């Protein structure tokens, strides 16, 4: 997935997707996707029989995966279509589901959006088709993210374990060590901005994905979901641990008021006025292509920790390939998904620059030993693979996370543009999400 596809989703257009959450639940806590009679796929027979499937995805390395898959299976035709990225595709997918026509056989769905489609029974449970035998194939974060209740509603395609990307030249010039804790990060932010009032340790104007990932790493568990019953609480210890430090960065104006993926952002990353990014493992290719003028300056380190000596990380971004429940060719669709995400297609995607979710690739010596010229010859994958192994377990997304992200800037985001604090913004976000959940038929506790 390219970087621009990981932006926080915003805008009224999201409301159409959000309304799907309980459209088929009828109060049931079973998120089963209507595939209870499915049997494990006899892949060889399915591929020999062949057929035609349609895949909706925007991930560019899938083009090579499809070409290889068709070459190995001449009786199969795969129509790869990019109908939009992120929310644009989710809207198109939900419209097709509602119309009962034009639903693809495979759809790329980001991890945070999987529960919303799964609980509406719009996805096939892939467990009975063979996914139940893949336990241990993927790293914990992505594998957990495609599960809802007792079902498996996609196979992880890539992952975004977080790390600290930093401009070594900036830290050398200021004479500050690269921070290993968030307290050290705060001190480094002060030193960088004091040395140059136009320089900042990071940018942030409010981003739902970044905020939830930071809460995740801090041990926060604001969402506790069991079918259609859930608790939403942004006052837990992990959440407040994050807001305490981040509020100081906001109050002291130590964060560049620049939106990620903007021209100003790329300029700041290139000229050193934005010194770090705490972001997912998919970032190296984006720096190489988007900030070529800073080649040799950037390095990668473990995320700063909330407690010295810890090694906790979180996921930021990443997608699955799922099979919509309305697919009329689910077995062939699953055979493709398994090939792309757990078979030979994985190496094809890694060769194309994707960051895998499979433990075999992440643990391989060849993968970890790769030297990145852009990062001064550093073996970046070694750091990122270690991060993938240290993702804190137990995180859950709310089953209407697409909607939640769409109203983030109207609530939490106000802390960046007004006198509202992060804690107050999170309280407003919580209130809105509780009300929305109640309206959609969930049982929501605070």
TrEMBL record:
Work out whether the entry's keyword set contains Transport.
yes
Q: Give me the segments passing through the membrane.
A: none
Alphabetical list of InterPro entries matching this protein: Bact_solute-bd_prot1 (IPR050490), SBP (IPR006059), SBP_1_CS (IPR006061)
Q: What is the top-level taxon of the source organism?
A: Bacteria
Segment forming the signal sequence: 1-23
In terms of Pfam families, this protein maps to: SBP_bac_1 (PF01547)
Q: Which UniProt keywords apply?
A: Signal, Transport
Please tell me whether the keyword Signal is annotated for this protein.
yes
Q: Which family does it belong to?
A: Belongs to the bacterial solute-binding protein 1 family.
Q: What is this protein called?
A: Sugar ABC transporter substrate-binding protein
High-level lineage: Bacteria, Bacillati, Actinomycetota, Actinomycetes, Micrococcales
